[in-house]
Structure formats: structure tokens, C-alpha cells
Amino acid sequence: MTLPLDLPGLEKATASSVKTRGWPSLMRTVREKQALVITNHNHPEAVIVDIKAYQELLAKAAEADSDERGGELERLRAQFDVQLASLNRDGGLGNVLGQPIRRGRVTPGKSL
Description:
The chain is of the alpha+beta class. It has four helices and three strands. The protein has a three-stranded mixed β-sheet with strand order 1-2-3. The longest helix is centred in the middle third of the chain and has 38 residues. The protein is elongated, with a radius of gyration of 29 Å.
């Protein structure tokens, strides 16, 4: 996945600078800026956030997932109800199941 290099509002640091500056410096930047984009050869590789921001992101994602699943479930339920109604109309399913199975003629395609 290719991300745009321009991530507005986020502090950036190269992977090599993270190695030289060390963990304490990295976490100080994360606490000050709330997030830090780590780049490797001028391409974003990772975003580091503090634990509070991470938990907030997880909560928002779970909430969005729940809303999306609820909407999808309602859509599937409505689709099922339409199909069920068509099967019940004019004895639909009973008529189909009550008829004997008829085999049609099979026409083979071109041979290999």
C-alpha cells in the first residue's frame, strides 16, 4: 500500500534518526505532537501514537464497525424478507417443491 508522503499535521522522523536519537527522544516527540510518522527512504512506514490516542482510535473503530454491521444486517434482513415474500406469493415454494423434477436435454460443447 502506498501512502501519500504529505501527511499534514504529523511530525515526521526518518528511521535512521530514530535509531540515533533513541527511544526517550522518540516518545518525547510523540507526547508533544500526539503522533510521529516514521519514514524510510522518504516513504511513510509507520505512525507511532501514545497509548491514550491508540485506545481512542480503537474505540472509534469499534463504534464505526458496530454501526456499519448494524446497517449491513438491516440491508440483508430486508433482502431476505423480499425473497421470502416472493416464495410465499401464490404458493410459490410449495408449487415448485410439489412438482416432479424434469430433466432437460444436455447439449455438449465443442470438444477439446
